[in-house]
Amino acid sequence: MKQIGISTEYIALGQFLKLSECISTGGEAKFFLQENEVVINGEADNRRGRKLYTGDQVDVKGFGVFTIVKR
């Protein structure tokens, strides 16, 4: 499990995908989420604006499982 550190209260799913290097630019988020399964805390979600908070677990199929931690 990989940890992604944030210094703010939350991070949007689209920003998370870029920070975790699942995508190379923020503009790819919409298309990535249409084609790939993302499970947040056990529930599938494809909203790029979904807010992720410290302690959330994100499973990106083909890329691994990530945990959001406070930096």
Tell me the Rg in angstroms: 11 Å
Q: Treating each run of at least 4 consecutive H or I residues as one helix, how many helices?
A: 2
Give the overall average pLDDT.
Answer: 97
Global outline: globular
Please count the beta strands (DSSP E, at least 2 residues each).
7
N-to-C order of helices and strands:
EEHHEEEEE
CATH homologous superfamily assignment: RNA-binding S4 domain
Global structural class: alpha+beta
How does CATH name the architecture? Roll
Low-confidence regions: none
Please summarize the sheet with the most strands.
5 strands, mixed
Describe the structure.
By secondary structure, this protein is of the alpha+beta class. It has a single domain (2-70), classed as Roll (Structural Genomics Hypothetical 15.5 Kd Protein In mrcA-pckA Intergenic Region, Chain A), CATH 3.10.290. It has two helices and seven strands. It has a five-stranded mixed sheet with strand order 1-7-6-3-4, with no helix packed on it. It has a two-stranded antiparallel ribbon with strand order 2-5. A hairpin with a 2-residue loop joins strand 3 and strand 4.
Overview features:
single chain, 71 residues, alpha+beta, Structural Genomics Hypothetical 15.5 Kd Protein In mrcA-pckA Intergenic Region, Chain A, two-stranded antiparallel sheet, 20% helix, globular
Q: Outline of this structure?
A:
The chain is 20% helix and 38% strand.
Tell me the layout of helices and strands.
Blueprint: E1 2-6, E2 10-12, H1 13-19, H2 29-35, E3 38-40, E4 43-44, E5 51-53, E6 57-60, E7 64-70
Parallel strand pairs: 1-7
Antiparallel strand pairs: 2-5, 3-4, 3-6, 6-7
